Structure formats: C-alpha cells, structure tokens
Amino acid sequence: xxxxxxxxxxxxxxxxxxxxxxxxxxxxxxxxxxxxxxxxxxxxxxxxxxxxxxxxxxxxxxxxxxxxxxxxxxxxxxxxxxxxxxxxxxxxxxxxxxxxxxxxxxxxxxxxxxxxxxxxxxxxxxxxxxxxxxxxxxxxxxxxxxxxxxxxxxxxxxxxxxxxxxxxxxxxxxxxxxxxxxxxxxxxxxxxxxxxxxxxxxxxxxxxxxxxxxxxxxxxxxxxxxxxxxxxxxxxxxxxxxxxxxxxxxxxxxxxxxxxxxxxxxxxxxxxxxxxxxxxxxxxxxxxxxxxxxxxxxxxxxxxxxxxxxxxxxxxxxxxxxxxxxxxxxxxxxxxxxxxxxxxxxxxxxxxxxxxxxxxxxxxxxxxxxxxxxxxxxxxxxxxxxxxxxxxxxxxxxxxxxxxxxxxxxxxxxxxxxxxxxxxxxxxxxxxxxxxxxxxxxxxxxxxxxxxxxxxxxxxxxxxxxxxxxxxxxxxxxxxxxxxxxxxxxxxxxxxxxxxxxxxxxxxxxxxxxxxxxxxxxxxxxxxxxxxxxxxxxxxxx
Amino acid sequence: xxxxxxxxxxxxxxxxxxxxxxxxxxxxxxxxxxxxxxxxxxxxxxxxxxxxxxxxxxxxxxxxxxxxxxxxxxxxxxxxxxxxxxxxxxxxxxxxxxxxxxxxxxxxxxxxxxxxxxxxxxxxxxxxxxxxxxxxxxxxxxxxxxxxxxxxxxxxxxxxxxxxxxxxxxxxxxxxxxxxxxxxxxxxxxxxxxxxxxxxxxxxxxxxxxxxxxxxxxxxxxxxxxxxxxxxxxxxxxxxxxxxxxxxxxxxxxxxxxxxxxxxxxxxxxxxxxxxxxxxxxxxxxxxxxxxxxxxxxxxxxxxxxxxxxxxxxxxxxxxxxxxxxxxxxxxxxxxxxxxxxxxxxxxxxxxxxxxxxxxxxxxxxxxxxxxxxxxxxxxxxxxxxxxxxxxxxxxxxxxxxxxxxxxxxxxxxxxxxxxxxxxxxxxxxxxxxxxxxxxxxxxxxxxxxxxxxxxxxxxxxxxxxxxxxxxxxxxxxxxxxxxxxxxxxxxxxxxxxxxxxxxxxxxxxxxxxxxxxxxxxxxxxxxxxxxxxxxxxxxxxxxxxxxxxxxxxxxxxxxxxxxxxxxxxxxxxxxxxxxxxxxxxxxxxxxxxxxxxxxxxxxxxxxxxxxxxxxxxxxxxxxxxxxxxxxxxxxxxxxxxxxxxxxxxxxxxxxxxxxxxxxxxxxxxxxxxxxxxxxxxxxxxxxxxxxxxxxxxxxxxxxxxxxxxxxxxxxxxxxxxxxxxxxxxxxxxxxxxxxxxxxxxxxxxxxxxxxxxxx
Lengths: 542, 760
Fold this sequence. Notes:
The structure holds two protein chains of two kinds.
Chain A: E1 17-18, E2 24-26, H1 35-52, H2 58-82, E3 91-99, E4 104-110, H3 114-132, H4 142-161, H5 165-186, H6 191-219, E5 223-225, E6 228-230, H7 238-245, H8 248-265, H9 274-281, H10 284-309, H11 311-337, H12 342-362, H13 366-397, H14 408-411, H15 413-426, H16 433-444, H17 454-483, H18 489-492, H19 502-520, H20 523-536
Parallel strand pairs in A: 2-5
Antiparallel strand pairs in A: 1-2, 3-4, 5-6
Helix pairs in contact in A: 1-2, 1-4, 2-3, 2-4, 3-4, 3-10, 3-13, 3-19, 4-5, 5-6, 5-10, 6-8, 6-9, 8-10, 8-11, 9-10, 9-12, 10-11, 10-12, 10-13, 11-12, 11-17, 12-13, 12-16, 12-17, 13-15, 13-16, 13-19, 13-20, 15-17, 16-19
Chain B: H1 6-21, H2 27-57, H3 85-88, H4 92-105, H5 109-117, H6 124-131, E1 139-150, E2 156-165, H7 167-190, H8 197-215, H9 220-238, H10 245-275, H11 283-291, H12 297-314, H13 323-326, H14 332-341, H15 346-353, H16 355-362, H17 371-386, H18 393-413, H19 417-444, H20 457-460, H21 462-476, H22 482-496, H23 504-529, H24 544-559, H25 579-584, H26 601-625, H27 630-640, H28 644-648, H29 650-726, H30 733-759
Helix pairs in contact in B: 1-2, 1-8, 2-7, 2-8, 7-8, 7-14, 7-19, 7-24, 8-9, 9-10, 10-12, 11-16, 12-15, 12-16, 14-19, 15-16, 17-18, 17-23, 18-19, 18-22, 18-23, 19-21, 19-22, 19-24, 21-23, 21-24, 22-23, 22-26, 23-26, 26-27, 29-30
C-alpha cells in the first residue's frame, strides 16, 4: 500500500485488462489515501475525536462537529473542482484488496451520477449542524447527537463512493444505526414505535439486498485475481460478468431482491408506511437528512447497481416499477390531502415525489435517469427545507396541527414567504429546482427504452401528469391554512412566535439559493450527470 | 435586437431590488424602482419595435435568422434570403400583392430553405424572381440551457434557452411594457398606504419580467417556465389581501384551475417534442415540422388539443373560465394588467406562436367547424350573457374579458390570425382602461364595486367618465374606435372562412356577442355614471397619476384601429393599408395557404348596427326603468335602429325590451350563471372535496387499516418472538433481541431461497 498524502489529479479508472481466455484480470490501482477516502472517513475521525471531549463541554462539542463537517464540505468542494465534467468514467478511482477470501475489494470512485449526491450530502450535514446549534432536541446531550450525525455522514458518503457491493452494503448499513438512535432517542412521543419500524423495515430490505448481491457473486463469471479465478463484487465489472453468467430467470429473482431492498428505502408504494412515522417522530435534523439523503440511497441503488448490472431484468421489471411509482404519486397525494399534521403531510408528499423519480427510472432511458438524479437532488433540497420549516414551526407554535395554525405570514412573514417558495418549488413550479425533476420525468416515460410497452407507459405518463395537479392541491391547501389568514386567538400574542432567526438564515439560505439557481440553470446538474448516465445505460442499447 | 433578453432581465433586477431594499425605502421609492425599470423596458421595447419595422421594410439586409450564441440555427435550413436591390424600390401596394402571390403559389418556407442551401450558386436576381418578396425571418438567439440524453449522432442532445423576436413578440413587448408602465403609475395612488406595498410592487415587477420572458421564449419549454411564473404572480396578487379567506380562496382557485389546464399543456409540449423528432423544443423546429407535410397529423391534433387545454384555463375559455371572475378579489390595477391585458392572453399568444401546429393539427384551412373555434365561440356567448347579471362592476368587466378572449380564440380558430392578434392588441388598451376606470370609480366611492351604490358619477368624475365612455364604445365595437376594427376583422374572417367556406356558426355567435357586448356595457356604463348617486360616499375625481394613464389608454383605444386600417387613408403618416398585418403576421414558417379576409362592408355595417342597437337598447331600458324621459327614449331608440312603426307602438317595444331584459336577466343569463355556479363551478369544487374525501377514506381504511396493519403485524410477530427471549434477556435489550431474531429468521429464509436459485 503506497502512502501518499493527497493525490492531486482526478485519477481515472484504467481500462480493464483481460487474459487470453477473456477473463478480466483484477489488479490494484490507485491508493487508499485517495481524496475520496479522506472525504468519507473525515466525519468518522471527527466523531472519534468528539468522543474524547468531556460531555459537559458543549461548546467544544458543537465546534468540533461543525469544523469536521465543514472540512468534509471542503473536501466535497475540492472534488467538485477537480472533477473532470467531460469524462464519463469513474474518477478518483482506487481499487485495492480488502477481504481477500471473498475478493471483496476497497473500490471507490465517483462519476457524474454519484457526484451530485455526494455533494448534496456534504452540503446538507453542516447546515443541519448549524441549525442544531441552539436546537438540540430533548433530551439534549449534544455530544451523542453530533457523534451520531457524523457517523451517519460517513455512512452516506461511503454509500455514494463505494464501487464494491460488499463495501456498499457495509456503508448502507452504517447509515441505519445512527438514524435509528436519532429517531429513537431524540424523536417525538411515539419515537420507539417509529424507530423500530424504520429499522425493521429497512433491515428487511437489506436482507433481501445482500442475498441478491451474494447471488450475483456466485452466478456471475469469475475474474482473475493473482492467478486464481474467483467471483467478484466489483460494480464496474459486474455488468459484463453478469451478462455472461446469470441466466434470465435468476436475473429476474436477483433484480427482485434488489427491487425490494432499494424499494423500501425509496420508499415505493406499498413499502412506504415506515416513512410517515419515521418522519413525524424524528427530530427536525433527522427528518431533513432522512428526506435529503437517506431516501436517495434507494434510488441511487437502482441507478448505480440494479439497472446497469441487470439491464434485461430491469426491462422486465420496468412496468412494475412504473405502475408502483404512479400509484405512489396518486396515492401519496391523496393521503396528503387527508392529513391534519403538517409534518406528516410533508412526509407523504415524499412518497409522491419519489414516485416521480422512480417513474423516471422506470423509463430506462438516459433522459429519464438524468431526470431521476435531478429529482433526487431537488427533492433533497426542497423537502429538506420543508422539514426545516416544519421543525421551526413546531418550535414556535408547539403544534403542527394544520387546523390550529394560520396567519404565519402575519406573525413571521419571512418564514411564511420561505414556506411559500418551498411549497411552490415542491409542486414543481418552473424556475425552481422541483420542476426539473418532475417535468423531464413525465417526459421520459412518453418514450421509454426500446422493447417497453408504449401504450402502458404513456398511460402512466398521463396519470403522473394528473398527479401534478394533486400536488398543487395539497401543497396550496397546506399553505393557505398555515400562512394565509389571521393568527388564531391561541397564538395571537404569543411572544415565542418570532420570525426567522440568524442561525436559521445561515442554515437555510444556501439551500434556498440552490433551489433557485438549479431552477434557472438546470444545466449545472444535467450536464454533470449526462455522460455517466449515458454510459451506465450502454448495455440497454442507448 | 439580439439582446432583447435584457428587457426581462431588467424587470427581474427590479424585482430583486424591491425585495432587497424596498422595506427600507419610502413608498414612492419602491414604486420609483419599478416605474423606472418598466419605463426603461418600454423605451427598449419601442426601439426593438422600430428595429423590427425596419427589418420588414428593409429588403436588402438582415434577412436571415440571426444566430448568436448557438451553432444550431446556422443550419442551411434556417438561412434566409438575400434580397435583390430591385425589389427595394417596389411600392407598398405591390409588396402586398407579391405577398398574396407568394401565398397563392404555396411557397412553403421549407422549400425556401432547400433553395437557400443552393442559393450561393444562383444570381440574386434569379433568386428574387422565384420568390418575389420572400419571408422576413424572425431573429432567434439561443444558448445551451442544459444537455440531457444522447442523440443519434453520438453527441449529447442540447436544450436551448433563447429569445425569439418577430412581429408577434415585438407587439407583445410593446403592449406588456406600456400597460405595465401605466399600471405601475396608477398603482402609486391606488395602493397608497397599502399594508403590503413592497410586496405588491415586487410582484408587479416579477410578473412583468415573467410575462416578457414568456413572450420572448424561443422554445416551448421556456414558454412553460414563463407561463407558470406569470401564474404564480397572479396567485400572489389575487391573494394580495390574504387575511380574508375569500381572497385566498380565489387565489387558490385560480392556481388550481390553471393547474388543471397546465396538465394538458405539459402533455401537449411533451407530445410535440417527440412528434417533431425528440431533439428540440424550439418554436421554429415545431412549426417547421407542422408545415413539413410529413407531420403525423393525429399527433398534431392530440398535441394541439392538449395545448388548448392549457389555453382553456389560462385564457378563461369555457368551461375553465370560472376562476377569472373570482380573480377580481385582487387589487384592481392587477386585474387590469394581469387579468385583462396580458397574462390571460398568454393562451391566445400560445396559439398564435405555434399557429402552424394548430393549423395542421385541426385542419383549420379545410374545415368549417372544429373544437378550438367552437369553444372560442361558445366562450364569447357564455361570457357576454353572464356579464348581464352582475352588479359588481369588476365582474361585468371580468365576464366581458372572458367573452373577448373567446373572440380572440375564435378568430385564430377560423384562420383570422391577424384579426385575433390585432384584437388582443386593441383589447389590451380598452379593457385595461375600463378596469383602471373601475378602480378610479371605486377609489372615489369607498372601495365599493357595487354598481347599485354608484350612479350619476359622470358629473363628479368627468375624466374617468369620458375615458370609460370611449373605451365602452371601443369594446362595443363602434366606429371608429379601435375595437371596431379588430372585431370586424374577426367577423369578416369568419364570414370568409378558409378553403372550405365560411365558419357560419362562429359568425353567428360573433354577431350575437357583438350585440350583447354593447348591451351589457351600456348597462354597466349607465348604472355607474347616469341616474342619481345611490351610495354614501362623496365621490370626487381621482388624482392625476390615476387619470393620466386612463387618458393615455383611451387615446390608444380611440386611434389604435388605424394601424391596421384596411384603406390607404393614412399613407401620409407612414401607415399603409393593413400595416399591422404586414408587420406582425409571420411570413416565415407560417401556413402558406392561409387566406386573409378583405374588409367586408356588410359585416361591418351589421356589427356596428348591432353594437349601436345594443347600447341604445340597454341605455333606454334603464332610463325607462327609472321612469324618466320615457318619451324621449323611445324616440332615440327609433333613431338607433327601429322604424316609425315601432315608435308608434312604444308599449309594444317596451314589452319586447322588458321581455328581452327579463329573459336576459331572469332566464338565459341567470340560467347560465346558475349553471356556471352550481354545475361547472361545483364540479371543480366537488373534484377537490371529493379528492379529499377519497384521500381520507384511502388513508383511514387502506393505508392505516390494511397496508399498515400488515406491517405492524410483522413487527408484532417479531416482538412476540422477542418476548420469548425476554426470559433470558431483560430490560431495554428486548427490542434489539426481537430485532435480531426477526432479521435472523428473515435472513435464514432468503438464504434458503438463494440456495435453491444457485442450485437450479
């Protein structure tokens, strides 16, 4: 293992070599001390350091957490700047042995698909820490809170950079536990139930997922490592290996396993019922991260793993995905209309919005996947913001009962306007980020990948378009009840109801700016994702 | 003209500036930012307009689609024509002739393009002989907005953002900036001391920016952005006084109704994108495809009908017009700007902009009736008839707007492109003036719009009265006011029809509406300005900042007609016959077989007669109703249109008036209004309520009852198995135990399954 402090150039993945029999030869490339390694383990290192800080010294704990997350963000910026946007392959690539018995390797690298999500993660976490500065939810204990948050960050970043299935799985699971505790300890009154449900449900999905990974490992063609043939977990090799080794029926089963594993995380109808509970009970920051990043792990799994590795099975499953996605859109919207609690309404709106993302994915076209990634980032920013506002509302009004709220524009006008902007963004108003996840998603299903049933997908398109009307319905209804009108007697002269506080501005403004900037310059994201997306769909024949 | 993007950018800047510093400035300061920005935009728009006129007249230069920023439009297809010097000398008359010739020859722009590719080889003169005048191509500038997907050539497909300048967009630029400017000025007094003065002016700027962005769009995707942004400004301004539930309800209704139509728009845009080769949303590209002769007409038909769904909601067409009267909850200057002159015509503009798509899709050239024309006609009637039962002055005007929008859509439907667009142009002035006039009246009468509390204001508010009267005449279509010329062209267009003969039904509907319009405006005018004052305020004339915009608008309402005058009377001032048509109607990528109807004396005479009759009828009816000037009135009626015999039988006449009035007020109009409020409106409301109920039921029984129970029971099952463990492990750990156990069981099961797969 070479030791280099920092590899400055974005190292590209070298072409795969094959031996005389056509078996890929795996050789170690790159260094463990790769910028990505720093990015992913920095939060963990910070968390370990925080453990040494005495519990009473809250200021130091907060500062430490903030500095760690900002350093990580700095690494993210470095990656953004050094990234070669015209390149479709993996960058900052490293491939070194890890668990040699099963040939699971430490393979990391990013491309246009993972970069935006990685950036989103390192962007959101510092904002969450700033927001929590004075808002540590009861029962307090900022040390534990921030340590968990940083561990969570490592898990999330790791999932987006891992190119080995086992490595991915480990990071994927690392995410689970901190979130379980965040909900279970700092959550609302029903936190025990919600956190358990979240944990169980996701674990159930993970179980099927790991089985699918193992099946891939056993069934795919082997690779040559140090002169011996062995299975591989390498995501960059598996598309070819699986194409040769996995039969049609087995591929369908494996895809099914991943489908449920990722589908629970997305969450797709009918696997979504953990989400409203988890969101409603989670502390504000937990909800924000859950919405902004965690749900994307599921959709990212489809885009990064399931579809490129098993394109033919994906084609067979695509109508199912599309159908469930569309049901999710309409069903999520209907449930939103029935809500009386603001946070729960936003949670259900996630079901509907992730439906659009999944619908775009089901088209299996480059246009659709681009839209899906845009949708993920946009949903992360917008719904994250909505949860921030819900949290601040709860703090001021001590309730999120929509019927009791009202006149926010009168008591906290700036917060009211921010809520207005976010609802508009959420309902897909052009000129704001949400639109570019929604409209191209609808557009992509008009002409799905070759071999998919046109009539069916076009029907789905029309129903999804109806979903946009519903979205406007519940969001405006929410906004009217919460922001318009006059405050009820109950809160009329409540001194606790203040407008946006300085710390809230610091935490929110970057997100709001991004929502608007991405709305007007969608190219920032589309141009980044496009080359990698086109390449990842190569097996589908364009 | 390649830098027109600056115009919306200025307004966007003004929006940000007002938002940023508005609160710290005094009222006039905020308004001044907005006014200054709009004024600059207006001047720039005028410069652009002159530039365009020059481009049309100047045949020697600048005849190609100027491409800047993006390579795509330098393809040979879009390269225009170099004009031969001989042609420059030709007179306006022969110019028009040649235009007609060109359309008769059916020189489709596509064939022009094909020849243009080989043009360098041939001499300019020979070239000119083939194509006489040649089209005036628009000026299109675009940049890459974003890239997504892979084209057939192996390069990423790029999507553009850009500006599209031609006669139509220039006309809209001029109209929007002028009216926005006047409305800004008017608002300084009208909104004086308002509780949300800053937001009002910020939104006004944002709206103007979005509207200009929309009209300058070079592709449908960008149009969609502008379309929705004006919608959200409309939402914000209708709900300006959101403390009252009624206002926020109206805002919500407007947004939701529009959203329903937008769904169609969304699908329509997608459909056309794929129909035309799935590489570009460009207006040029779509129009070119629609005219190419290889277009899939079924797709075009469905696409244009989907787009029309968007038009139906945005431009208040039947049956989605119900939001527009409610939208009057917003401040009156907003109603003038957004809900009369500019935003609501966005739909009309959409049809005009993508006219080849509608033309080919609906086969306008070869039919006598089709959906768009029919809905347009129906809307004019519905709007006009409903305007009768209103006692709220603004609502009369709102229904009138619906009716006039119907006129425009009908015009485009029957192939009278210029007439429809010209009506959009003239209507913007007189309807804005009428709304501002209503605002001025209300400003004087304690903020009421109830005409029952007005009356006799003509003496107290002479300027408001004068301008209102002029614009009433213009709206009613009385010679020589602007509305007459545009409305008459529409009727003439319907009478002449296109290839397949007259659009008889639409002509009939148009004529009836012409009469109704005059009648209800006569009624509104009378109730407001004549009779005795019935309110409790002390009406007074409004300040100059309110009356000057009114005067300017009524000058336009009086004289705007001459710019598309059918005769050569105004050659002296540089306005030839059909000048507006020459300047605005596209000659590039436009249906070549479209026939422009000539001035029709019969129709003109009939419509004027109807209009005068309408006003006279309603005027005399109301005078009689109050029991004054009975004798004189009947005489005046006789002059207006009846004969000596009718004068003799004045009771007989009165009976007809009564019957007509009653039928109007009690039957037809009230019936339509009832249908409007109780059926159409209820369906809209009911759909919302129903969805919520379904949502409730779904949530309560399906989501919480079935799906969730299944999940919970799984959880309980593992909890119970965990309970078994608790004998060994105690306390907090039981949860984790249950968890581990549950997952272990699950893992075991799936391992077995996998084993089976692996072995198979």
